[in-house]
Amino acid sequence: MQNELEASQAPDSRDVSLTIPARPDYLVLARLALSAVCRLTPLSPEEVADLKLAITEAANDFVDESRPLDDESRLSFSFRLTDDTLLMDLEGPSGPVAASEQELSRAIIDATVDEASFASGQTRLTKYLRTPAE
């Protein structure tokens, strides 16, 4: 299984993409990539922990631990850092998620990010960056 972590060729790149197998045991890689991107932001450690929780909850819509190890399904993450926002996009196959579990995940996401949008096979999470003086 191939894991890909790429950053743009530009030395000051603030975009990171990651594609992993759509299995829960690989989500730690997305959390690590997000942590690395967050080092470039004014976010507090508590806010970073919240974002890692949000990305994990959002990924639950796409991962399925019952997938066979040789399944080719992939989950893609894209982290884009601008001057005032951190955009986190997820794309992957829809997994079997119970409505009650999805409702709880959405509540956690809503509590930890500023905006969230959900579509079939795609999720976007947005965190607005504020300087400590604001």
Assembly category: single chain
For the sheet with most strands, the description reads:
6 strands, antiparallel
The number of distinct helices, counting runs of at least 4 residues, comes to 3
The largest beta-sheet arranges its strands as 1-2-3-4-6-5
Distance between the termini: 44 Å
Strand content: 25-35%
Order of helices and strands: EEHHEEHEE
Q: Any idea what the radius of gyration is? A: 15 Å
Helix share bin: 25-40%
Coarse structural class: alpha+beta
Question: Explain this structure to me?
Answer:
- By secondary structure, the chain is of the alpha+beta class.
- 31% of the residues lie in helices and 28% in strands.
- A six-stranded antiparallel sheet has the order 1-2-3-4-6-5, with helices on one face.
- Helix 1 runs antiparallel to helix 2 (45-59) and helix 2 (45-59) runs antiparallel to helix 3.
- The longest helix has 15 residues, at 45-59.
- The termini are far apart.
Write the layout of secondary structure elements.
Layout: E1 4-7, E2 15-21, H1 27-38, H2 45-59, E3 74-81, E4 85-91, H3 99-112, E5 115-119, E6 122-128
Helix pairs in contact: 1-2, 2-3
What key attributes describe this structure?
28% strand, alpha+beta, 134 residues
Q: What would you say about this model in short?
A:
The chain has 134 residues and is α+β, with helices and mostly antiparallel strands. It is 31% helix and 28% strand. Strand 3 (74-81) and strand 4 form a beta hairpin.
